[in-house]
Design brief:
mainly alpha, three-stranded antiparallel beta sheet, 19 helices
């Protein structure tokens, strides 16, 4: 996790975090879990991640290997002693820049081995030795990556606010653009999909945060959050016709069909693509906690879009349009109407007809004008009473 790192590969610790997440899921096969455990162990061994290894032993993910534990402790003690010696030498014999670099090296050491608390402590020490605002921002990005490793949303939120306050001291457009993606990922991970969509869409042409995820995953998140956040016109302008999205979307299974069939009102095709995407959403570390919510919101969007065209429609016709059974669509609509998710009066079970109560644009404007007029008249009446007094 290098300060200001801008490679074309995902940050290794986030790759590790995803593997640890997959190990915890029941949906992952035992064969895949054997492979994942081997890869996790190799990563821990290569980076001497003693704190994480001890945690996984306590969680019964790995059996304790006393020889390996002793070897890791010896190597880390030796490396830490050398880092402390460099700090002392820099403070006694070198300049401020060298002192900062020595402290930064110790911070990165704790980040590498997965010692979060000590890493945060020494990042603060490094910040106290840092003058340049750009370098302070890079330290905040290090902290953000620590936060995303174990989904510490409190740390992430505070770090985002800290970065924004630092931006007030200067331009740093590249770092500002990077922060939008970090904040977008944070918003998506905390179920603020609308804000996430806006931030991710703003970053399409300036994306450089490969340390978080590859560009195709970025597009995947952008499309998913946009579908449940944008109106139909905005979705067409910002997503369906966006050149940056068009160049990548075909590489992501089911995503193009999912987006375009929704916009083109090809509902049977949409449901087919939707089913294909569910596994990818369920196995995504950031989306998994919101899986049921997201699936419900997507269905709200597509059912609402279908019903906008009708004052009434038979349940049979709707079931055929979506390629599902009448019983399924009846059960789905009953739940959504009861929850206030759909603008419908009721379902006529005898006739098998669904009646909508969505106002058209002119009627909606008329009703809003009447409400605002009544409100204004009430305010004038109250004001006249005060004046009369």
């Amino acid at each position: 996790m290098m300060e200001g790192e801008e490679g074309s590969h995902q940050q290794p610790h986030l790759v590790l975090a995803n593997k640890l997440f997959l190990l915890s899921l029941h949906d992952v096969s035992d064969i895949d879990k054997v492979r994942l455990k081997e890869e996790v162990f190799t990563h821990i061994n290569n980076d001497d991640m003693l704190p994480l290894y001890q945690t996984l032993i306590a969680d019964s993910v790995f059996d304790a290997d006393p020889a390996l534990l002793d070897s890791m402790r010896a190597k880390l003690d030796d490396e830490l002693n050398k880092l402390d010696e460099k700090i002392v030498d820099a403070e006694e014999n070198l300049g401020e820049s060298e002192v900062r670099e020595a402290h930064l090296a110790k911070s990165l050491f704790f980040i590498r081995i997965g010692s979060k608390e000590k890493a945060l402590e020494h990042l603060k020490v490094t910040e106290s030795k840092t003058v340049a605002v750009g370098q302070k921002m890079d330290l905040v990005f290090c902290t953000l990556l620590l936060g995303f490793f174990d989904m510490d949303f409190d740390l992430i939120a505070k770090s985002i606010e800290k970065a924004k306050s630092l931006f007030e001291e200067g331009g740093y457009w590249e770092r500002k653009n990077r922060l939008k993606v970090y904040e977008g990922l944070y918003c998506m991970s905390t179920r603020n999909f609308k804000k996430a969509a806006n931030l991710l869409l703003d970053s399409i042409s300036t994306f450089t945060t490969y340390e978080l995820f590859p560009y195709d995953i970025f597009i995947f998140y952008t499309v998913l959050t946009s579908i449940i956040s944008l109106d139909r016109v905005s979705l067409k302008q910002k997503v369906v016709d966006a050149p940056e999205i068009l160049t990548v979307i075909g590489k992501i299974p089911y995503l193009s069909k999912f987006l375009n069939s929704l916009y083109d009102c090809q509902y049977k095709s949409f449901f087919s693509a939707f089913a294909g995407l569910t596994e990818q959403i369920k196995l995504d570390r950031y989306l998994h906690p919101h899986f049921r919510y997201f699936m419900r919101e997507v269905r709200t969007v597509v059912y609402s879009q279908f019903l906008e065209s009708y004052k009434s429609v038979t349940i049979d016709a709707m079931a055929k349009a979506f390629g599902v059974t009448v019983d399924f669509i009846d059960w789905e609509l009953s739940r959504f109407i009861a929850a206030g998710k759909l603008h419908c009066k009721n379902i006529d079970k005898v006739a098998g007809v669904l009646e909508t109560n969505r106002l058209d644009a002119k009627n909606a404007l008329y009703q809003a004008t009447i409400k605002q007029g009544d409100f204004l008249l009430n305010r004038i009446q109250k004001l006249s009473r005060v004046i009369d007094l």
